[in-house]
Amino acid sequence: MILTLTVNPAIDRNILVDRLVFEDRAYILSRNESAGGRGINASRVLHSFGAKTVAVVTSGGENGNRFEKLLAKSGFPVKVVCISHDIRTNFAITDRQGLTVKLNELGPPISAEELASVEKAVETRLKTASWLMLCGSIPPDVSTDFYAKLIRIAHDHKVKTLLDTDGDALVHGVEAGPTVVMPNQPEAERLLNRALITRQHFMDAVARIKAMGPESVLLSLGSRGVVALNDHHLMEALPPRIDALSPIGAGDALAAAFVWAATKKKDFPDCVRWAVAAGTASAQLPGMEFASLEQTKETYRSVEVKLVR
Predict the structure, then answer these.
(1) Of 130, 133, 118, nearest to 253 (Cα)?
(2) What is the CATH topology of the domain spanning 2-307?
């Protein structure tokens, strides 16, 4: 079983417009609302791939009621930890060329007692889990070492961990030694406090991040694919050229597919190849749709893997 945690979920409002421009109007072509969060999205992909997954989420307030109703349609088991404050609402505006603007609320206060309930919900389920995916931001009042604590607990249970977050939670998390950390380019730039522009910058970045503590690093570069490093391989996985319709959630598909492939005992380069295939295939779909396993297989054939060493 693959366990995901979304401690800072949201009602995601996704809006498709004809174009995104400054100082001129745009027209809304469609809009939808979904239960949002990186861990939830990862569980959606895992479930569609046929993997067993359980999602631990927080929920509270009127937004939480709507969120739980939306989440009930997902088809996989969910453990809801109730909190007293309203969960957040996030907005994503995408045009027909794939250009996206994201507007995210920070998230609600979570008390020490509520956070302890989250920790208990995770630890209880680690007994039957092979992986724990720690996904997304943490609310402002939560200690930035919360993910690091859960990584250490998972390690005690001999459960592998994937960390997909940003900011100080990423800084402390990588130091706890997760199995894999998966920053995108802006997250890696903030972690390293430097701009990443050239191919050599990307190669240096994964080496520097790995030296901080994780076993493996996947640096997600969007349409440029992934640069990845573990103890045995430094590699690039290059996606085919596509017309990206909506890149929202592509990183969540990438993370989920990597873990899915790892549970199938595939080697590290092949796990990375599956990850890039899922992210690329999902980026071609509208809104918050995720590629199926069949769609991912089709893209997988066109992903080029280059072993640097």
Answers:
(1) 133
(2) UDP-N-acetylmuramoyl-L-alanine:D-glutamate ligase (3.40.1190)
